[in-house]
């Protein structure tokens, strides 16, 4: 039976390489009985998806999510009014 330390190591390694059959089976067995390691798996998946989204956003460029000229003008106006308030 795997320890939690071994299971977390295998889960991390599975992000970089395919696990061997024996490793996959041992990890699945451990995950059946260990809620904390299941939670860790979900956290790793969340981190992986977030990294993929950042990578895709960088690859796609920022132009597709750029602010409209009206939104930029509103932000600049708000910033300018905030600076005037601080000077008084």
Description:
The protein has a domain at 4-62. Helix content is 78%, strand content 0%. It has 4 helices and no strands. The protein has helices spanning 4-14, 21-33, 35-60, 69-87. Helix 1 (4-14) crosses helix 2 (21-33) and helix 1 packs parallel to helix 3 (35-60). The termini are far apart.
Q: Can you give me a brief rundown of this structure?
A:
The protein has helices spanning 4-14, 21-33, 35-60, 69-87. Helices cover 78% and strands 0% of the residues.
The count of helical stretches stands at: 4
* Classification by helices and strands: mainly alpha
- What about the largest sheet? none
Secondary structure: number of strands: 0
End-to-end separation in angstroms reads 69 Å
Element string (H = helix, E = strand): HHHH
Low-confidence regions: none
Strand content: under 5%
Rg value = 23 Å
Task: Indicate the percent of residues in helices.
Answer: over 70%
Mean pLDDT: 87
Features of the shown structure:
mainly alpha; elongated
What topology emerges from the helices and strands here?
Blueprint lengths: L3 H11 L6 H13 L1 H26 L8 H19 L1
């Amino acid at each position: 039976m795997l320890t939690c330390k071994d299971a977390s190591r295998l889960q991390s390694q599975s992000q970089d390489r395919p696990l061997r059959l024996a490793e996959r089976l041992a990890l699945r067995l451990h995950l059946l009985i260990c809620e904390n390691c299941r939670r860790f798996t979900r956290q790793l998946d969340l981190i992986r998806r977030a990294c993929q989204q950042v990578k895709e956003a960088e690859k796609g460029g920022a132009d597709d999510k750029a602010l409209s000229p009206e939104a930029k003008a509103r932000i600049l106006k708000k910033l300018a009014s905030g600076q005037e308030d601080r000077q008084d």
